[in-house]
């Protein structure tokens, strides 16, 4: 009987050895890679496009080969201001831009960035968006426009300069009649101040300045402004402004593509947005401060925007939003929500916050002789 069972025993041992070998061999993933084609609204050389790639890399790394986002620069598939429609239609699977670029479809969209935001900085606007009702309002606006997209807002931007001018701005009257580039509701605010506004996309601004098609322009920050070539054509930059003091980035997904992803991959996207938001804000401090210092060394003149101009912005903004709120119920709904959140959040923030300028002056102010 022992001899009759030995072939069977040998087969069992052979099968066990094969199984053990398979277990010890490297595991080969059978999961299929989902590839998504994104486009940013920024030129490839801009730090903003770098931020878009940073976000994509975080998703790609965490997805472990199951999801891959490829980011193309502005204009690769569609012009910057057509991103929303392209993502909605599925021409693109997603995109990276700002909500203000969709301002022409509903004026309320510009409230995510344009204007003083009742005193909220960009991080506080993001707090309102994520925890104070802004996210639901943005979804309501997109639904009213029949835009089948999923939107994530992230990345609090530093306060944007008033812009680059051929001559420094000394008084409110200097803004009147200027051919000036801006976007979003800032268009209406500056128009109210008597400025002739042209809402050019980012890649077209410096060429227009160079050819004299516009007299002055704002874009965003020291790093972007420098790499886009503003210092090459204009030598005066006015710092501080309320026109876009609380803006952030938007990552868009085609809704069908997004909902077709597994819950695990959607969670990866959720957390990649949060990680990218923090990383972007830290990188901005490093890069913007260095580029600001380098431009000063190169002879670019920076001036503080006069308080009279800032107060004129606030007055013009109040007239602008009063008009828009009367024309657009969704605009009023967003504005009212921001007002309630800002009054409470900024009471806490202003009361608890210390004056960091005092500490800076203590350590780095000019030494008394």
UniProtKB/TrEMBL annotation:
Binding locations of Na(+): 219
GO terms, molecular function:
metal ion binding
Source domain of life is Bacteria
Keyword presence, Signal: yes
Q: Could you say which residues bind substrate here?
A: 160, 181, 218, 244
| Any single GO BP term | transmembrane transport
Q: Provide GO CC annotations from the record.
A: tripartite ATP-independent periplasmic transporter complex
Keywords, A to Z, come to:
Metal-binding, Signal
Cleavable signal peptide:
1-31
A Pfam family reported for this protein in Swiss-Prot or TrEMBL: DctP
What PROSITE patterns does the record tag this protein with? TAT
Checking CDD domains in the record gives: PBP2_TRAP_ketoacid_lactate_like (cd13604)
Protein's name in the database = C4-dicarboxylate ABC transporter
Species the sequence originates in: Variovorax paradoxus
Q: What taxonomic ancestry is recorded?
A: Bacteria, Pseudomonadati, Pseudomonadota, Betaproteobacteria, Burkholderiales
